[in-house]
Design goal:
CATH architecture: 3-Layer(aba) Sandwich
Radius of gyration: 16 Å
CATH topology: Rossmann fold
Order of helices and strands: EHEHEHEHHEHE
Oligomer: single chain
Low-confidence stretches: 171-180
CATH superfamily: NAD(P)-binding Rossmann-like Domain
Number of helices: 6
Strand content: 15-25%
Largest sheet: 6 strands, parallel
Shape: globular
Amino acid sequence: MKALITGITSYDGYFLSQFLSSKGYEVHGVIRRNSFKSFGNLSLLPDGLKKQINLHEGDVKDTSFINRVVSEVKPDELYHLAAQSFVAYSFENPPSTYDINIGGTLNVVNAIRDYSPNTRLYFAATSELFGKPETVPQNENTPFRPQSLCVAYIMIKFGNLWSKPKLTKLLLMTNFIFLGEK
C-alpha cells in the first residue's frame, strides 16, 4: 500500500507517517519548499524511518506539482493535512488562507479525480462545518450548518465534486485537539 501525506511535517503528519510506516506502507510526503530546509516534526523521526519516507518538495497551491506527484505516486490513500491553520494569520491575510485551504484542497481533489481515481482521500476538515451543532459530540449523522461563507463555499465545491462518478472514495473528517503525550 502507498500513502501520500500533504502536511507531513505537521504534528499529525509526524504521527501518521510513523503509524503508516509501522503498517508496512510506502510513505510519500509533500513538504513545502523553504530556504531553511526545515523538515518540521519529521526531524524528530528516527534516522532509519526518515530514510524510508519519500519526500516531494513543492506546494499544494501549485496545480502542476500536485498533478505530477499524484500521477507518479498513484497512492492507494492520500491524507490531505496541509493547510494554513493559524487563526490569527487567517484574519490578517484571507487571500493566502483561501489559496492554501481552498485552492490547495481543490488541486488535491482534482489531481485524484484526473490521475488516480482509485485513491481514497482523507481530508482533514474543520469543525466549522457543523456551525452550532444541536448534539455533542458530533458524528457522521450530525447535519452541516456552517456559519461562515468560506466554509459554505467549500461545502458547495466539494458537493459538486462528490457528485462526479469518478470520485467516490472521499472521507471528510474533522480533527479534534488531542491533549497529552501522544
